[in-house]
Amino acid sequence: MPFSRDDEWKAFETVRKNRDACISFLVKLAQRIEREWDDAPTRLGRLGLLRDALETLSTHTHADCRELAALAPRMLRDLNCDQRHFLNLALPIERKFSKGLVDHDFLVTTDDGGTGTGAAASTAQKQPLTLVLDHLRSAFNVGAIFRTADCLGISRLVLCGYTATPDDAQVQRTTMGAHAHVAWEWKKNTAAAVDELRAAGVPVVALETVEGAPLVDEYEWPSGCALLLGNERHGIDAALLRKCDAVVRLPALGVKNSMNVGVALGMCGHEILRQWRAKARRAAAAEGDGAPEKRARRDVDSG
To answer: Would you identify the CATH topology of the domain 120-287?
Structure first.
């Protein structure tokens, strides 16, 4: 349907006073802008509509809507923005709209390893693996990744760009407290974070759907490395991939060639740990076979 500012503005005015309906309208408007990004006239028209709608919320009765009004002068002064800038604008709107999952209602069959006062840290088996998140859009995904990272024993998360941090309420709800047991830090620039890791001698491996890249189980994962995960929609920028020591991919046999970033971490992370455990077992077996008393016992038995 062709863009009609008058019709869409009337639709906004109809729902403006209701907090949930108003924010739902803004989310859907942002989604349409993203889908039609390559259509410049329509994009600019809807960006102007979004800016004007946000500006009217400065006197709204609900605090959430008043907070969103501040986005207009700060981020939409110039409608000729790039797509990444726009996504940065859309995130606060999406997070106001999203309610998240109520994970504590799910069935839990075992207790946690600790109480959060030190016991958990004593039972955690930290692995020499750092996780770098490049401009992740979904606070839910970030929270899920914290839970998976805690399960895998990942030692540290580096949250880059507009990736939500555990200061975000939805991240906290989704982590179910796991964020308290995984060290994390925020970096403004992903490329600088990758450079810093490599300068410290930490190899950085990107997980991306790049044709010709080895599968995660074909790659020999070095001990003490970092895994880079990219934006849910746009993936990892080519310039950033070139900074990495390696790029690997997950097998995808269906119609879609990618999967949820949190699911991808779980699959890749368990393969990394599988390789490291297998290597440790082989090393222990080799050391045991070489012990003097075992060699002597084998000599006696063979004699």
So the answer is: Alpha/beta knot (3.40.1280)
